[in-house]
Amino acid sequence: MKKEVLLSFILLSFILTISFVFADSNATTIEEKAYSCLKDNINKKISSLSLEEKSFSLLALAYDSSLQSSLISKINDEKNDNCFPNKCKVKDTALVIIALNYAKQNTEESEGWLIDKEIRAKNINVFLEIDTNEKSNCTIKWDGGSAKISISEDKKVSGGGGCFDSATNGYWLKIKDSCLNKNFTVSCSKDFITTLLYQKSSEDIWYVSDDIKSASANGETQHVSNLSCFSDNGKDCDYEASLWATLALQRTGHNIDNLIPYLILFASDNQKLFPDSFLYYLTNSEDYLNNIVGLQKNEGYWDLASVKGEYYDTALALLVIQSASSDAKSSAESWLTEKQDSSGCWNNNNIRDTAFLLWANWPKQASAVTVQENCIDKGYYCLSKAECGEAGGNILDNYYCSGLKECCSKPLAEKRCSEKDKLAGYSGKGEICQEGKVCSVSLVSASDTDKCCLGSCEESTATECENYGYLCKNSCSSDEEEANYNCNGQKVCCRPKEEPSTKKSWVIWLLIILIIVVIVLIILRNRIKILLFKKRSGIKEGNVGKMRPPFVPPSAGSGIPRTQYSQTKTIPPLRTIPTQLPIRQPIRRDRELEETMKKLREMSR
Fold it and tell me: What is the torsional sign of CA 232, 69, 42, 35?
């Protein structure tokens, strides 16, 4: 009985081990494979990486103290005074500042160099708005001059002069180009509010500053109409460099109010650079989040038709939408799972794209000399600086968050779905689609649901192909094949090609055969033991030897007639024979057999 229990236990352990092996192989997550692939590539190619590749790799691998040290050393090899690389470029220096700051390195000198590369943005009109509920007289002062204006009951402005021209609509004052970057102080005889407005000179595109100030009668408000951008040549604004430089300065605690108007007003001219992603993080405006979600492809990725490519654009989107749109994030992760190389990287082992995607969507805390505590674990909130400011909280430097988030002392009160504005082209507020209907755009999160639709709720028109989880396309890509399902039109149904699995199938069949062999051995264990014993003892199978000759009746020539024999033969009376048990003989043990069985038992443990 004990042997049967032991063998059963061995079989169960064997099966469970196989299950765990397969479970472990399937449990390897998409990010674990990518991190492993990236580290392998960095170790092999670190000396030949571009500065951009080193910077993104540091953002992804800053958690590994050894690789962090190696990457920082290689980045500093390209330092020229306080800028990067040797030719000193704004965008490269900004990206290095973000990476080194993430790795807890001091970047003050490079930040100072970056600020010196700011120039005044051109082709932007700036207006001063003064609003009161009553007729009022106001005075505007600046360094070297002043102006007096009157505000009528219908809120129209008259007067001005000096640095101001009357705006065409009569409600605002246009600041002359020669007076931009001056500090203006406003005072009125009645309660009032003031703010600045910006207009792109060549188009009817406006930006109203979030810097709205109020004061009681005879109080004062102040505004600086400073408009800046970044330039490598000192003459012309570089939009991409301005995006990264603004992000770098914001990350390192600098005021960026003077940089935002240029980025917003010229975003429409630079859509391929995906400005909505930067602007959503910098301003926390829901309009930019809606734009990001609306630009996502049906397959789950983003592609703004830039030279950077779909993986880079997808990383830019994932960098900022993390908790804002779970549906868009989930869809992107599914696409990335399908597109992941067998090595674990993306885009044919592209180091920049793989590192950027990992930092954007699966970031890890940087290894630092001073160990910080997790912000969320301590009961605080991971927000962007813009979100923290909107929430009225303070940035807590002693706690860490992943990615671009900062630890904030207060939470941001998220709007309900019914309070969110729908995307451009749709009217009304957000809604939760009823059963049987689908949203025309990707869903976003709200305080009351993670399935808020900012488009329109439409009847589901999923095709047979889509019901099976595949995609309807004009043509299948190289890593897809046509499936025989209907797309209700001229399109074809595309599904991912099945990767060769010869090796995996061979292993599975081998394990199945081993399981069958073990089961057969357990069932036939007694017969096998007997066969082994007979083999060791030298006993051979065959017919049993004859103990006595067979009985032969008398023949006719024996002198005794058969009839006479049968008549004269007497049958002896029956007698009782006492029953006696046979004496059990000691079994001769085979020492070799015992040693063999002992070894087998030890192997089964």
Answer: negative
E-strand stretches of 510-589: none
Rounded Cα gap, residues 283 and 453, in angstroms: 22
| Distance between CA atoms of residues 572 and 270, nearest Å | 126
With vertex at residue 375, the alpha carbon angle to CA 372 and CA 377, rounded to the nearest 5 degrees, is: 105
Phi, psi of 344 (to 5 degrees): 110, -20
pTM of the predicted model over 0.90: no
Confidence at 212, pLDDT banded by 50, 70, 90:
confident
- Both structure tokens of 506: 């061979």
Q: Round to whole Å and give the CA distance between 452 and 458.
A: 14
Inter-CA distances, 382 with 255, 370, 461, Å: 20, 19, 39
E strands present in 362-436: 373-374, 381-383, 399-400, 406-408
- pLDDT, tens only, 45-82: 999 999 999 999 999 999 999 999 999 999 999 999 89
Give the mean model confidence (pLDDT) for residues 323-335.
84
Distance of CA 210 to the CA centre of its chain: 32
Answer left, alpha or beta for residue 263, where phi above 0 means left and psi between -120 and 50 means alpha.
alpha
Pairing of strands 228-230, 406-408: unpaired
Helix ranges, 553-590 (H): 562-568
Report the DSSP beta bridge partners of residue 495.
481
- Tens-place pLDDT, residues 296-313: 998 999 999 888 999 999
